[in-house]
Amino acid sequence: MNNRQKRRPVGNGSGAPDLDVLIIGAGPYGLSAGAYLKARGLAVRVYGEAMEFWANKMPAGMLLRSPRVASSISDPESAFTLETYEKTSGIKPSAPLPLETFVEYGRWFQHQLAGALDTTPIQSVRRENELFLVTLKTGTVVRSRRVVVAAGIGSFQRKPAVFSSLPSHQASHCYEGRKIAEFAGKRVAVIGAGQSALESAALLHESGATVEIIAKIPQLRWIGMHGWLHNLGPISQMLYSSYDVGPAGISRMVSFPHFMYHVPLGLKDKVRVRAVRPAGSRWLPARLASVRTSTARSVQSAVSAGDEVVLKLDDHTERRVDHVLMGTGYSVDISKYDFLSQSLLSETRKLGGYPDLGRGFQSSVPGLHFIGATAARNFGPLLNFVAGTEFASRELATFISRTRIKV
């Protein structure tokens, strides 16, 4: 922080907090948490552009992997569901749900915050005595009793080192918001075997690109291809939750985050990996039928050669493409949130790159909370999905209401 910022008036000028809770991030988790906390009578403000990551970083034209029943952003009265938005807006319900519809739904949801959303970017967050001092890009400093980080996964793109030397116009991550249409007529290698990679490959192919999927796994996997398991009445209800996260049995386990919290970490990690392993939705195979796929293969080197990228695979074959699109997912590492001060990061106990969280999603720094994907290592993979907003927001709001920090 520079001297000019230090001389600015802080908060309300009295040293008292401006807010009970300041939420960073206006995606589904931030919006939902804001609605729950506001309903509890707390002074809360959400910072961020509503649904910015979904609108600007995800491939246009994609469809949500989650079933409709698991695609509503939670609010305390269940008054602002996806179905309510569609009925209010005169939109015909569809499944799977188009990304564009979900984005507009989230923006509609944010109006329920009634002025509690501020789009000013966050510069930094630090702790001073019992308060958090949050500096905005404008230089204004806001004092808050608590900070909830709901900043999503945009900072966590996983980019294999083999592609690190390629310029940005020849290699990108599928979470960077590149326009699919700009690849029409080009040769594109899509790296990965998860939903993002496979759906990006389908969209590229449909837009006129020549596409090859290169994946390490022996064969591509598809979600929900054993439909009969979902049609066994009470037995199916024992095997699967309505959230549809994970295979039979595991789906039930991960639908109870409180239970997952008490599962030993080693076993919990195995369950988490199994529940979100690379796979594509069942409506993708037909769209990829004429797309070249190389499974059980990995890229050993990637070199820019003029307008081309030369890829050498582990079977000693070579590919020449115009662009490499990495559908390689993300790795949580909260140190990549550039708004968190080094002192806060050093005080936050971690499990790998994840924060180690307790009740109410509180970290080892009192008053600092993390929700969404950053909470998945403690509470299970449900927190990677929109369906987790109900549990996260209820747990957070209940904890904060019961343990008000007195300043």
> What is the domain total for the residues?
3
Mean pLDDT: 91
Distance between the termini: 24 Å
Task: Assess the beta-strand content as a share of residues.
Answer: 15-25%
Number of DSSP strand runs: 19
Percent range of helical residues: 25-40%
What's the alpha carbon Rg, rounded to whole Å?
22 Å
The secondary structure category is alpha/beta
CATH domain class of the largest domain: Alpha Beta
Unreliable runs: 1-10
Largest sheet: 7 strands, mixed
Q: What would your notes on this structure say?
A:
- With 407 residues, the chain is an alpha/beta fold.
- The chain folds into three domains: 3-156 and 330-402, FAD/NAD(P)-binding domain, CATH 3.50.50; 161-221 and 278-326, FAD/NAD(P)-binding domain (3-Layer(bba) Sandwich); 222-275, no CATH class.
- Helix content is 26%, strand content 20%.
- It contains 13 helices and 19 strands.
- It has helices spanning 3-7, 28-39, 52-56, 82-89, 99-110, 195-206, 234-239, 250-254, 257-262, 265-275, 342-347, 376-379, 389-402; strands spanning 19-24, 44-47, 117-118, 122-128, 131-136, 141-149, 171-173, 187-191, 210-214, 222-223, 280-281, 292-294, 299-305, 308-313, 318-321, 323-326, 350-351, 354-355, 368-370.
- The strands form five sheets. Strands 1, 2, 3, 4, 5, 6 and 19 form a seven-stranded mixed beta sheet that branches. The protein has a five-stranded parallel beta sheet with strand order 7-16-8-9-12, with helices on one face. A three-stranded antiparallel beta sheet has the order 13-14-15, with no helix packed on it.
- Helix 6 links the parallel strand 8 (187-191) and strand 9 (210-214).
- Helix 2 runs parallel beside helix 13.
- Residues 1-10 have low confidence and may be disordered.
